[in-house]
Amino acid sequence: MKQLKGEIISNVKIGEGLFKMTVFSPYITKNAIPGQFVNIKCSSDDLVMPLLRRPFSIHDIEPDFKVFSILYILKGIGTQFLSRQNAGDIIDFVGPLGNGIKIEECENNKFLLIAGGIGIAPLYFLAKTLSIEGKNVFFAAGFKDGNFILFEKMLQLLKINYEIYSENGMHGKKGMITDFIIEKADDFKNYDIYCCGPVDMYKALQNIFSLKNIKAKALFEEIMACGIGVCKGCVMKFKVSEDKYIYKTVCKEGPVFNLMEAIFE
After folding, report:
1. Of these four, 117, 156, 175, 263, which has the most CB atoms within 10 Å of its CB?
2. Who's near 211: CB < 8 A, 6+ residues apart?
């Protein structure tokens, strides 16, 4: 992990309020693994606000060109700042951060990746890495509408199996991605499962997998300050036993945790 500066290679709008930024960084491309993130300074050098850096999952890495990419949705002053940056501008970031996914430690050679909305960001990096290593990957993605329609082309280029649902039927099948998981859960009992998305999706998956005695891991997102586990501003509650729980930092101990141990309040 280092504090770094990198040149923006591109910053492209790929959907309504949805952007993909690509940054030159030999250090990140050499050291990052799936599940990790960068903490970006979202202000110019002469401004204080916003004071805190913003965490963004590493969405893709292209080692040959020494670049990495992030996806972001316009939400506040931090992402508004990013959207105004152009190719050739320099951004300040810290990374790679977080306890990522060590593929060599995974139990199986088959993987189910479940993404909801912007949760595709870190899971695409994982899917691409697994595909390069010859693993069997199934990608299940759910969206509200057709705003992420370009993502399907990226999955096609990976030549992996996938299923896409949207709530309004504009992209893929109409419905929730959890509808697909309910129907097909038994088919994925011998898969390593990773998911990333909104809390409601996590709650639904917990219920589905607990009934089937299926294990799954999730990549969580919380508001962060330091990004290195010092301030404890991003803690989540996890079950240790039926009557005991502990708090863990998403930025340092995570963002990858056992989904079935997470406590949502």
Report:
1. 117
2. none
List average pLDDT for each run of 10 residues in the chain, which is 265 residues long: 96 96 98 97 80 93 97 95 97 96 91 97 98 96 94 94 95 95 94 97 96 95 84 91 91 95 92
Evaluate whether 61 touches 32 at the Cβ level (below 8 Å): yes
Angle CA 121–202–215, to nearest 5 = 95
Domain spanning 220-265: CATH superfamily? Dihydroorotate dehydrogenase, electron transfer subunit (2.10.240.10)
198 in Cβ contact with 143 (< 8 Å)? no
Select the CATH number that applies to the domain covering 2-97 from these four: 1.10.1040.10, 2.40.30.10, 3.90.249.10, 3.60.20.10: 2.40.30.10
Instruction: Give me the architecture of the 103-218 domain, per CATH.
Output: 3-Layer(aba) Sandwich (3.40)
pTM of the model: 0.95
